[in-house]
Amino acid sequence: MKNLNEPRKPMQPEGEVIPLESRRAAKMEKMEGPPSALVAKREMEDLRARWTAVQAAFVDDPRKSVQEADELVSSAIQQISESFREQRSRLEKQWSKGGEASTEDLRLSLQQYRTFFERLLSM
């Protein structure tokens, strides 16, 4: 049995100290799984390839590159917005099938919205 009168030894951290934000993000991912992509992989690869081309063309025509960058960002935002609308539509279809959604369905939906929201803020 421990003697309660003995002074407590300070706890020593083992290994690397991980910031709270990183621990929270890892915990959320562990609980919910990896977040789903806002844009399909093939579309994401296309957007990245287009961005590379925009950057490469800057030296030859800076003004045109900036205009193309604006169009590319607008296109990416539109694709993300469409992805969100599709996710919302799927949720609404689930809810409309049975009238009242279960608390568990609502909890899962809220988690999806939170994940989406956190990803928006992390950009």
Write the layout of secondary structure elements.
Blueprint: H1 20-32, H2 41-57, H3 62-98, H4 103-122
Helix pairs in contact: 2-3
Any descriptors?
elongated; mainly alpha; 123 residues; 4 helices
Question: Can I get a quick summary?
Answer:
This protein has helices at residues 20-32, 41-57, 62-98, 103-122. The chain is an all-alpha fold. The longest helix is centred in the middle third of the chain and has 37 residues, at 62-98.
Beta-strand percentage range: under 5%
Radius of gyration: 23 Å
Largest sheet, in brief, is:
none
Portion of residues within helices? over 70%
Structural class: mainly alpha
3D architecture notes:
The chain has 123 residues and is mainly α. It has helices at residues 20-32, 41-57, 62-98, 103-122. It has 4 helices and no strands. Helix 2 packs antiparallel against helix 3. The chain has a domain at 37-122. Helices cover 71% and strands 0% of the residues.
